[in-house]
Amino acid sequence: AQSVAQPEDQVNVAEGNPLTVKCTYSVSGNPYLFWYVQYPNRGLQFLLKYITGDNLVKGSYGFEAEFNKSQTSFHLKKPSALVSDSALYFCAVREGPGGTYKYIFGTGTRLKVLA
Amino acid sequence: GAGVSQSPRYKVAKRGQDVALRCDPISGHVSLFWYQQALGQGPEFLTYFQNEAQLDKSGLPSDRFFAERPEGSVSTLKIQRTQQEDSAVYLCASSHSGLTYEQYFGPGTRLTVT
User: CA nearest A59 in B: which residue?
Assistant: First the structure.
């Protein structure tokens, strides 16, 4: 069965420092992986995805993520955090070609960037 | 352009009432998903449509939940005889085509069952 784990409920980082939000997954076959961000009173917004190809994917607002097949991880990173990055971040996975249509989301990690 | 819209944004229902939640996806988006998000949790998959065909309804929690998309655009999620455990935010998402594309989410409908 598919699953996603976001081991940290909250991550605190100082503005200007690099940030990492962790995600590990379990899925049959090749995964499709996604990161979404949720701001208060707003819907989830797509940040980036890994489908195939380069393990390092770049997305919106300067975020990037690295797909690591051996560690079954897809950690979200940003070289220099902004206060405006403070939000709730969700990792999601679905099975690749031939798999089910079901997307599985993690429980979310709240990112707090301190000025 | 217009994003995914959902109505109503808030719904309070007495236990036992039926409710209908509407989703207007982005025009031309083939795929439509419904999710349930409980407080402090991530979205949980309910069902998936490709055009008007409901291809996966494995996430619907009980036979009180029913979803339709009769013309392949607007979708309605209906919950019959609501229970307190149905209280949650119901999210709708659409995507362009295929299933490698990212999903665009609506703002959600917050359902409170009293």
Answer: B102
Number of helical (H) and strand (E) elements in chain B, helices listed first: 0, 11
Ordered per-residue pLDDT tens for chain B, 114 residues: 589 999 999 999 999 999 999 999 999 999 999 999 998 899 999 999 999 999 999 999 999 999 999 999 999 999 999 999 999 999 999 998 765 678 999 999 999 999
Task: In whole angstroms, give the CA distance from residue A52 to residue B3.
Answer: 27
Burial of A30 (0-12, 13-18, 19+ CB in 10 A): middle
Find residues 38-97 of chain B whose CB sits inside 8 Å of chain A: 40-45, 48, 55-56, 58-59, 91, 93
- A34·B41 Cβ contact <8 A: no
Q: In chain A, which residues have their Cβ closer than 8 Å to the Cβ of B107?
A: 41-43
